[in-house]
Design brief:
Blueprint: E1 2-3, E2 6-7, H1 12-16, E3 25-27, E4 30-33, E5 45-48, E6 54-56, E7 66-67, H2 69-77, H3 81-92, H4 141-146, E8 150-152, E9 157-163, E10 169-176, E11 182-184, H5 198-204, E12 208-212, H6 215-223, E13 228-230, H7 238-246, E14 251-254, H8 260-273, E15 278-281, H9 296-302
Parallel strand pairs: 12-13, 12-14, 14-15
Antiparallel strand pairs: 1-2, 3-4, 4-5, 5-6, 6-7, 8-9, 9-10, 10-11
Helix pairs in contact: 2-3
């Protein structure tokens, strides 16, 4: 489906299965169930699994009669249309920045502090209760404290605090501990305007950073003493590129997921950054999809044997 000009390969069935349904079944390319918007005993609600369009044939309300997949998720998650679009782009976006448009001209506004969306004093509620979800995934308590990771007992979600390069809070990503579902703070800034872990990397005065897709992968690397940032999804924006180029990092290690999409991103990042930085590829073991799946001791050993990517041929434009 096309969202904000991007073609996304959304796993529609997987998204639907994160919600409770009555009488649900899959027939051909149709997901059928009782309507989520009213009481009924015989299913009259259907979603096209190819394009996400849906219809509630028994609805007497025009707004709840049919629509596209973004509208459906917005209704099911009780969230705004724009927020759902951002969610789907973050989760499934593979359209990367245009290399012809990337330059070394760093915008002056990058040095301006971003007004925080929420004061840290109002985050205290996220630290009243704890969960061992991340600890059980080999992310140390010290690193969780360093990144101010919280927990929302109400939503059964860990709270990942996104900050700008000056450590001002710009968004909160809530990731459920019982599914892959996640939400953002409703008044937060777009995470594609920032990099998770950038402030911590700058503070460490490191020259080499690892670039991951997810926050949990970045936290895993930090638990091994390896500075890392997360893109927050399977794409890099022009703003994120500018942020990376504006800092004093000299070496990038590409550690995006070891799957079709992740390797596509890795190829793009290698080609994009090679003219300006020293670039390495993380050597994933066979059968391991992402950084968090690798044992910490193995991860540290692999980090000592980084791969040099194949050289690219560039058509430099004057």
């Amino acid at each position: 489906m096309k969202i904000q000009g991007q073609e996304l390969d959304v796993n529609i069935l997987e998204e639907l299965q994160q919600f409770p349904w009555e009488g649900d079944r899959v027939v051909g390319n149709k997901f059928q169930a009782c309507s989520p918007f009213r009481e009924e005993s015989h299913p009259s609600f259907a979603v096209n699994l190819d394009n996400g369009t849906w219809v509630d044939s028994g609805s007497i309300t025009e707004y709840l009669h049919k629509g596209n997949f973004v509208k459906l998720l917005a209704l099911l998650r009780q969230d705004s249309y724009d927020t759902i679009e951002d969610y789907l782009i973050t989760a499934y976006g593979t359209v990367l920045a245009d290399t012809d448009g990337l330059t070394l001209e760093i915008p002056i506004e990058l040095e301006h502090k971003t007004p925080p969306i929420i004061s840290r004093s109002r985050l205290y509620a996220l630290y009243e209760k704890k969960t061992d979800y991340l600890t059980n995934r080999n992310i140390s308590e010290d690193i969780q404290h360093m990144f101010e990771v919280g927990y929302s007992d109400k939503n059964k979600s860990i709270a990942l605090i996104w900050t700008d390069k000056h450590n001002q809070v710009v968004n909160i990503k809530y990731r459920r501990i019982d599914s892959k579902k996640f939400y953002y703070y409703k008044d937060g800034q777009r995470i594609r305007e920032h990099l998770y872990g950038l402030y911590q990397c700058i503070k460490s005065e490191t020259k080499r950073i690892y670039i991951c897709e997810s926050e949990i992968d970045a936290l895993t690397l930090w638990s091994c003493g390896i500075p890392a940032v997360a893109l927050g999804g399977s794409s890099i924006s022009d703003r994120q590129f500018d942020l990376l180029m504006s800092c004093d990092f000299t070496e990038f290690v590409i550690a995006t997921d070891n799957d079709k999409v992740g390797r596509r991103i890795a190829d793009f990042l290698v080609e994009t950054f090679t003219p300006f930085k020293k670039v390495f590829l993380f050597p994933f073991p066979v059968g391991k999809k992402d950084i968090n799946e690798i044992e910490l001791a193995v991860l540290q050993d692999l980090s000592a044997h980084l791969k040099v990517p194949e050289p690219f041929t560039f058509d430099l434009k004057i």
